[in-house]
Predict the structure of Branched-chain amino acid ABC transporter, ATP-binding (LivF-like).
Amino acid sequence: MLLEIDGLNSHYGRIHALKSASLSVREGELVALVGANGAGKTTLLRTLSGVHPASSGRITFDGCDITRMKASRRVAEGVVQVPEGRQLFGPQSVEDNLRLGAYRRGSGKPDDDIERLYEMFPVLKVKRDQPAGTLSGGQQQIVALARALMAKPRLLLLDEPSMGLAPLLVAEIFDAVQLLKREGTTILLVEQNAHAALAIADRGYVIETGEIVLSDSGAALLSNERVRQAYLGL
């Protein structure tokens, strides 16, 4: 198992945001975490990446306890997050944003990886010299995704990649996520668009008010009556 979370708790002051959450991700899997706004999805990713501290519980990555490890070291170990809202360096060019993604990695030539990403996402090559903040929302999300790939992630944490995007752009983003999966990238996808996420996931978890309440294959959760009523509007 590449990632194991066992009894993870996290707080914002007195607010108990994560309540004994447990989940796992195998190498090469795409696992979706779905739930309503405020359910704890982003908190779980932030705690995994080290941006927010765990109150108790254990995070194990490739057999190593990383629960108290600094966020910067987690990136170097291969745990890389694409944050909600993209958080690009807007005045900097697309290519500069990509190069910044390689800051913490240990090996390899950034130029080679940039060219590979330009082949994977041709729009980035077209826009390479443009300030990242001038791109459309969908293009900015591709930049944020590619920036994370520059860090050579062993586990890619995707936080709400479809947020604020038009339906056509959402389809493009999920096509990109599926492409990464086919290339062998291990992905933990947090997404409010439960249908889109579960449709491409090997397995999924449902989180409600900080607690994991359901887990199954993506297909099984899509057909689960409780999930259909609560998250798919069916």
The first helix runs from residue 41 to 49. The first strand starts at residue 3 and ends at 12.
